[in-house]
Amino acid sequence: MNTLAPNRPVVLCLSGHDPSGGAGLQADIEALLAQHCHAAPTVTALTVQDTADVSDFRVLDREWVLAQANKVISDLPVSAVKLGMLGSVEMVDTVLELMQRLPDTPLVCDPVLRAGGGGSLGKDDVGYAMRERLFPVSTIATPNLPEARILAELPAGSADDCAERLLVHIDHLLITGGHGDEAEIHNRLYTRSGERHDFTCPRLPGSYHGSGCTLASALAGRLALGEGLVSAVRSALDYTWRTLRDAEQPGQGQYVPRRLPLDFGA
User: Fold this and answer.
1) Where do the DSSP E strands lie in the chain?
2) Does 58 fall in a domain?
3) Does 2 have pLDDT greater than 70?
4) 46 — phi, psi (to 5°)?
5) Which helix (H) or strand (E) holds 113?
6) What value, to the nearest 5°, has the Cα angle with vertex 150 and ends 50 and 107?
7) Using CA atoms, how far apart are residues 178 and 187, in angstroms rounded to an integer?
């Protein structure tokens, strides 16, 4: 073993597999590498999707997911946990069981309910189960505004309206913008105590596949490194914006964030 190089913090990722490589576990791995963290990817679901949209998905058997994650937890010192696509209420139960083995470990919940193209990535009751049972054990959730509206059951609610309802269940909530036609993107961090932080960035042209995964993973990585929550949110948002600025269009659908520099590993 190389005793000269310190170990990178380990982030346990429970997410779906995207065969296009734009979102899901590949996004998690790349974003965490960019934060100088080690990703431990546990597959929760398989999807049929491309850079345009998802057409089908299959949630893995609960015992398989538990077996994957428990092996990691028994072997590696997990410094943070990042949740992506869960896809079923049973998978929510699985995460809750796993978190009993990881008390006081930062948990970043990216409530993935729909793909960027609009296709569903979970049954209707998954959002309710996440809000009622996962949010209370999460450090922070990172929904975009459409996801926040689903979780808050406010189809036309503002970010502030959604936060008011959701902060009953969680201490910190980052609601991301970019789904309107505004010239600047407004991202807002809410706390149950009433504290609020606004982060703005210029709107970029095009639409992007995997931006939410990128943000949540980068945030989990910053927390795993010991960065304070507000600073970690700022770092993750800045990093994500840069990946979108440098995005590429490998297929016929959305742009994919460039999470690693072209000379990475050279």
Assistant:
1) 10-17, 38-49, 54-59, 78-83, 107-109, 140-141, 172-175, 184-191, 196-202
2) yes
3) no
4) -110, 140
5) none
6) 75
7) 8
Residue 211 makes CB contacts below 8 A (sequence gap 6+) with 116, 240, 243, 244, 257
Domains identified in the chain, total number: 1
Look up residue 118 and give its DSSP letter. Answer: S
Mean pLDDT for the stretch of residues 56-73: 96
Give 119's pLDDT tier (boundaries 50, 70, 90): very low
What DSSP state is assigned to residue 133?
I
Distance CA 41, CA 15 (A): 7
Secondary structure letter of residue 14 according to DSSP: E
CB 134 within 8 A of CB 97: no
- CB 142 within 8 Å of CB 233: no
CB 133 within 8 A of CB 124: no
Residue 193 lies in a domain: yes
Q: Are 173 and 144 in contact (CB under 8 A)?
A: no
Within-domain flag for 265:
no
**Residue 45: inside a domain, yes or no?**
yes
pTM value is 0.94
DSSP state of 104: T
CB 140 within 8 A of CB 110: no
Whether pLDDT at 225 is above 50: yes
Q: Identity (one letter) of the amino acid at 9?
A: P
Task: For residue 103, give its domain range.
Answer: 10-246
Domain CATH number, residue 227: 3.40.1190.20
Q: What is the pLDDT of residue 178?
A: 75
CB 28 within 8 A of CB 84: yes
Q: Are strands 78-83 and 54-59 parallel, antiparallel or unpaired?
A: unpaired
Give the C-alpha separation, 138 to 183, whole Å. 32
Question: Is the pLDDT higher at 53 or at 241?
Answer: 241
